[in-house]
Structure formats: structure tokens, C-alpha cells
TrEMBL record:
Species of the source: Phyllostomus discolor (pale spear-nosed bat)
PROSITE patterns membership: EF_HAND_1, EF_HAND_2, IQ, SER_THR_PHOSPHATASE
Protein name: Serine/threonine-protein phosphatase with EF-hands
PANTHER family: SERINE/THREONINE-PROTEIN PHOSPHATASE 5-RELATED, SERINE_THREONINE-PROTEIN PHOSPHATASE WITH EF-HANDS 1
Necessary cofactors: Mn(2+); Mg(2+)
EC number: 3.1.3.16
Gene behind the chain: PPEF1
Length: 649
């Protein structure tokens, strides 16, 4: 018996040892996958912030345009009013604003009756679940009523919890209707006993922005003080031009889309900029800065700020006090406007709003420019502590940043980020979350992830999907800067070998692209290296190229137009006030000349004119710029092969 016991003990020891080896291998394997997933999310976020930075920089271009294009005010004052005009209370009746739009008998979507009832919200949600489109007549009436109600709201909402009543806080939704419906399914519909705070960025990126906005507006009209809507940085018509909401509205409402967009500008301008719960918790979309003053913020005429990207500030009206306030900041230049100074916000007021919509927390102490986004600031734990003490608050809840788990705590738990759009970058990229705030500041966090699959994909497959998508977008950024990258590589390659060290390659990528990424870790997905670790730098571009619309066009021009295609599209959309998609050759030439001058783009105007003429296929003297810019797309030669390589690595 003793001998048998000894054998069993030895077998048990071997089994345990084998199990430990397997366990350690799996832990290491999972850790490597998680690291790759984190790097891919870093790529997505860096590119997202770089795009937002470019969007903010457009404000300087529009300033430059109006200062240099002397005849634009006389030629088309509507452009000036659209960019720099202010929203003011509209005393006209609903009939004057909207007119009479008949809902035909053939319409099969939700039919609403005004005044709205709780059944209206249920009807709307059920219709949207069936992918029905709400008729433009109802959309316009809801927007009109929402604007009228928002005009009565303060800049900072105030709402209270009770022992029997909790408040739910949701972050960015970005047009992801499934996430909103899942929240309502888990947490219940809004009501006076189930209040909500939606913390901005309802629209853009996702395909159901207008549906989310209609649900939130109807909920707000029904429950008023028990459903708070904060403005986010995407509740802005210039952001909507780049990130998809404008296109969505015009696609779904071809006849009345322009009128809907105009109403949306006013609704967004009237949205409050924050909410305070129990006089203890401040909720803003982005965050704060060292100069954020809630008293001043509560007194700003917020409706005057139609777009945070276009600060409506007269150049010659800034006082010496304001100049001193901005000595450490570099805000966009103002525009010399006609009219009373009282019609426009000051630079300092504009800065107050920009900071709460665009800022991000960081662990570094102090307050310093938000170099990634290009707007707002980074604020450290000391700034948070000082701000909370000053205003006798205990907590700041904000959104604005995608987090892998849907939420994140920082600054010793005094700042919480909540993000409610799951799968934001790619399927499986992140969870969504919402927070329930109970009496005496008790917090509960709820996470979820929308999926149409019956079971969640294995981790390696999810990581591969996210990583492949991130690399594809990053490579598009690289091909748009190919000439600059090659010049940087060749400057490092003094021996003309076609290879440089990993450090030189990483330095060149960082310098040219301006993205703070772990280039050494990403190199295995981007370039070929030899046994000594040297990089074959031209291998960056092996599997992709820009499809040229015209063969004779120089590659440098193609790269330039591709690089600035989003900025140029927005400029053209602003000029194309009737949304026809057509712009004259003269307008194209004038805008390109200003654009190239402002951005120091050294491209011969004659090359651009020749390209435009070639694109004018029907020779009618105008160009369909949507089709024009679709011609500049990146061809990924290895797409088919990467799709088959979805196994574990």
C-alpha cells in the first residue's frame, strides 16, 4: 500500500506541474494578446484625436479665408452668417418656422400626436427597432418644441437624488442606437422616478444619430427636469460635417434635410453645458481647466456659440484684461465682424465653453494645452482638487474618451470617465457603461457590450479583427504622407542602403506623422526587418497605394489632396449652401488657392485646375466633389490575404 501511495503522489505532482505550466503559458499568451489589443486601441485613439485636432485647426483657416477673400462677404454673406453668425431667440410661430408638411397615407413609420405622451416614446422606440424612419414633419416639430424648452433651461442643470430615486448617467452614444436600447432594456425607460443624464456626443460616427436624438428629445419634452441633456463636442454643425451626422440627415431626409440641419444648429446651441447632482457631483462632457468658473459659465449666453470650432470674436474688441488672461494660451484668431460686441461671446467666454467640452484628465500635475486634440486642455489631479474645493463639490463625472471597460477612475477617484458606446472603434474593441448615482453619492457601475453573435468570439479572433482594422487606418495615414516619410527615411539612410535602424525608423515615423505611438512594438505589423534588426523602410508601402483618378497627375498632388481630403470636403460643403454637391470651377480654384496658401502646400495651381477640368466629365463648369474625393481612396493589395489569417498567433 505504501508503494501505491508513493506512485499516486508522484502522478499528482506531475499533474499539478503540468497544469501550472499550461496555466503560465496561457496567462502569458493572454497577456500578449491584451498588449496587442491595447496597442491597437492606442492607434485608433491617436488617429481620432489627430483628426479632431485637424478639425479645430479649420477654424484658423476660415478666419484666414474671410480676412483674405475680400469679396466673400459681398458675394455670399450667407457663408459668413453660417460660420460666424449667432443664434438668437426666434419669436416666430411654429407655422412660420416649419410650415405645413403633410404626412402621406403611404407613410408606415411612427405616427405621433402633439402634445406628446409617454406612449409617444414607446411608439418611437418600437418604430426605430424596425428600422423605420420618422417623417420629417415629426422631426421638425420635435426639434422646434425642444428648442423652445431648452431656451428656458439654465447653462448648468441641477437635479437631485432621493432615498428612493437614483440618477443614471450615460456617456457618448455616437449614433449607436443598439447601445441606447440595451441601456433602456437593462435600466428602464426615462421617467420622473427613473431620471437620466446624457452627457453629450449623441451623434456622429454611428448610423442612427437622428434616431437617438429623437428619442432623447422626446424624453426631454416629456420629463423635462428628470432627463438632462448636456452638450458634447460633437453637438456642433462643423463636427457633423466631418463625422457623418450631416450626411446621415441629408440621406434620410432628401427633401427637408436642409431645414432639419438648420434647426439642429439652434438646438445644439441651446443645450446646457453641464449638470450638477445634489450640489456635489458635476457632470460635463470633457472636463475642466484651471480657469473654469461655474459662476461665469452659468451666465454665458450659450446660444451665441453655434460652433465651438468657430469662436465668434471681433478682432478689435478684446480688452487688455482678456489679452492677459490668454497670455499662456493660443486661441484661434477672431474675425473682424460688424455689429454690436454684445452679439458675440468674448474669447474668455468661448474658452470657458471649449474647456468643458474638449478637455481631458491626465496624471501629470498642472493645466497644459491638449496637444492631441488641439482644443481644451489636459488637467492634473491638483487642478481637480482645487476646482472641487472652490465650488464645494466632491466628484467630476465626464465622458469624451473611449475606455476599454466603458468607465475609468482617476485623480484619486475624484474624476470618473463614462463612455456608453460599445464596439466604438471595431466589433469587440470596448465595452459600454453607465453609472447609477444613489442617495448620498453611492455609485454603481454597469457594463455591457452589444453583439449580434450568439456567443462571444474567442479573444485571439477579436484581437486580430481590432488590430487589422487599426493597422489599415494607420497605413492610410502613412500613404497620405509617403513623400514626406520617404524623405525622412532617406535623410537617415546616409549610405543609401534602403535600410535604417529601428530607432531611426521610429523617430522618422513620430516626426512626420505626429502620432505618439509605440512604433517599435508596432513595427512587426508595418515593416520588414532583417536579422540585425534593421528596417527596410520602403516595405512600409508594399501593400497599398492611392488609386489615382487621373493617370497623368503627379503623385505629390495626389498625396496632398488625399491628406487634406476631409478638410477640403468640409470647406466645400460650407460653400455648397444648397447641398447640391456641385461647386463651380471658379469657387474650387479660389478655395484651393487660399487653402494652399494658409497650409503652406506647395502645389502648382495649374495642376489642380487641370485635375478639376479632367474631373468635369460633362463639361458643365461644375464638379460633384463627393465623387471627386471618393476617387482618392487607398487600395490595400493584401486585404484578401489578411482576412484568411485570423487564427491564433
Amino acid at each position: 500500500m505504501g508503494c501505491g501511495s508513493s506512485i499516486r503522489i508522484k502522478k499528482t505532482a506531475k499533474t499539478i506541474k503540468a497544469a501550472l505550466i499550461i496555466q503560465n503559458w496561457y496567462r502569458g499568451y493572454s497577456a500578449r494578446l491584451r498588449t496587442r489589443e491595447r496597442y491597437a486601441l492606442t492607434v485608433f485613439q491617436s488617429l481620432e484625436y489627430a483628426d479632431e485636432q485637424g478639425q479645430l485647426q479649420l477654424s484658423n483657416f476660415f478666419s484666414f479665408m474671410l480676412e483674405n477673400y475680400a469679396g466673400i462677404k459681398e458675394k455670399d454673406p450667407a457663408i459668413v452668417n453660417r460660420l460666424f453668425g449667432c443664434s438668437f431667440p426666434d419669436e416666430r410661430s411654429k407655422l412660420d418656422c416649419i410650415g405645413v408638411i403633410e404626412v402621406p397615407d403611404s407613410y408606415t413609420g411612427p405616427r405621433l400626436k402633439f402634445p406628446l405622451t409617454p406612449d409617444s416614446l414607446h411608439l418611437l422606440i418600437e418604430g426605430f427597432k424596425k428600422q423605420q424612419i420618422l417623417h420629417a414633419s415629426y422631426v421638425l416639430e420635435i426639434l422646434f418644441e425642444t428648442k423652445e424648452a431648452l431656451m428656458q433651461m439654465p447653462n448648468l442643470n441641477r437635479i437631485r437624488t432621493y432615498p428612493t430615486r437614483e440618477i443614471t448617467i450615460c456617456g457618448d452614444l455616437h449614433g449607436k442606437l443598439d447601445d441606447l436600447l440595451l441601456i433602456f432594456s437593462k435600466n428602464g425607460l426615462p421617467s420622473s422616478s427613473n431620471p437620466y443624464v446624457f452627457n453629450g456626443d449623441f451623434v456622429d460616427r454611428g448610423k442612427n444619430s437622428i434616431e437617438i436624438l429623437m428619442i432623447l428629445c422626446v424624453g426631454f419634452l416629456l420629463y423635462g427636469d428628470d432627463l438632462c441633456l448636456n452638450r458634447g463636442n460633437h453637438e456642433d454643425f462643423l463636427m457633423n460635417m466631418r463625422y457623418g451626422f450631416t450626411k446621415e440627415v441629408l440621406s434620410k431626409y432628401k427633401v427637408h434635410g436642409e431645414k432639419i440641419l438648420k434647426f439642429l444648429e439652434d438646438v445644439f446651441a441651446w443645450l446646457p453645458v453641464g449638470t450638477i447632482i445634489d450640489e456635489e457631483i458635476l457632470i460635463t462632457h470633457g472636463g475642466i481647466s484651471e480657469s473654469t468658473d461655474l459662476v461665469l459659465l452659468n451666465n454665458i449666453e450659450r446660444n451665441k456659440l453655434k460652433s465651438v470650432l468657430m469662436p465668434p470674436v471681433p478682432l478689435d474688441k478684446s480688452s487688455p484684461v482678456e489679452t492677459r488672461r490668454h497670455r499662456a494660451r493660443n486661441p484661434p484668431r477672431g474675425i473682424q465682424m460688424t455689429g454690436s460686441p454684445s452679439q458675440y461671446l468674448t474669447k474668455y467666454e468661448w474658452e470657458q465653453v471649449t474647456d468643458v467640452l474638449w478637455s481631458d484628465p491626465r496624471e501629470k500635475r498642472g493645466c497644459y494645452p491638449n496637444t492631441c486634440r488641439g482644443g481644451g486642455c489636459y488637467f492634473g489631479p491638483d487642478v481637480t482638487a482645487k476646482f472641487l474645493r472652490k465650488h464645494r463639490l466632491k466628484l467630476l463625472i465626464r465622458s469624451h474618451e473611449c475606455k476599454p471597460d466603458g468607465y475609468e477612475l482617476c485623480h484619486d477617484g475624484k474624476v470618473i470617465t463614462v463612455f456608453s458606446a460599445s464596439n466604438y472603434y471595431e466589433e469587440g474593441s470596448n465595452r459600454g457603461a453607465y453609472i447609477r448615482v444613489g442617495f448620498r453619492m453611492t455609485l454603481q457601475f454597469f457594463q455591457y457590450q452589444v453583439t449580434k453573435a450568439t456567443c462571444i468570439s474567442p479573444l485571439y479572433r477579436r484581437v486580430h479583427t481590432i488590430e487589422s482594422s487599426a493597422m489599415k487606418i494607420l497605413k492610410e495615414r502613412m500613404i497620405a504622407r509617403k513623400t514626406d516619410l520617404v524623405n525622412a527615411f532617406q535623410h537617415q539612410d546616409r549610405e543609401k542602403t534602403g535600410k535604417i535602424s529601428m530607432g531611426q525608423w521610429a523617430f522618422s515615423m513620430e516626426t512626420v506623422l505626429g502620432l505618439k505611438l509605440p512604433w517599435r512594438s508596432l513595427s512587426t505589423r508595418l515593416v520588414i526587418t532583417d536579422k540585425e534588426g534593421n528596417v527596410d523602410y520602403m516595405s512600409c508601402f508594399n501593400d497599398m497605394h492611392i488609386q489615382k483618378p487621373v493617370k497623368e497627375v503627379q503623385s505629390a498632388l495626389i498625396e496632398t489632396l488625399y491628406r487634406y481630403r476631409s478638410d477640403l470636403q468640409i470647406i466645400f460643403k460650407v460653400i455648397d449652401s444648397d447641398h447640391s454637391g456641385l461647386i463651380s470651377m471658379e469657387e474650387f480654384h479660389t478655395m484651393w488657392k487660399l487653402f494652399s496658401s494658409h497650409y503652406n502646400v506647395c502645389i502648382d495651381d495649374s495642376q489642380v485646375d487641370e485635375l478639376a477640368r479632367r474631373m468635369d466629365l460633362n463639361k458643365d463648369g461644375s464638379i460633384d466633389f463627393n465623387e471627386f474625393f471618393k476617387a482618392f481612396y487607398v487600395v490595400h493589395k493584401l486585404d484578401s490575404s489578411t482576412k484568411t489569417n485570423a487564427g491564433p498567433v
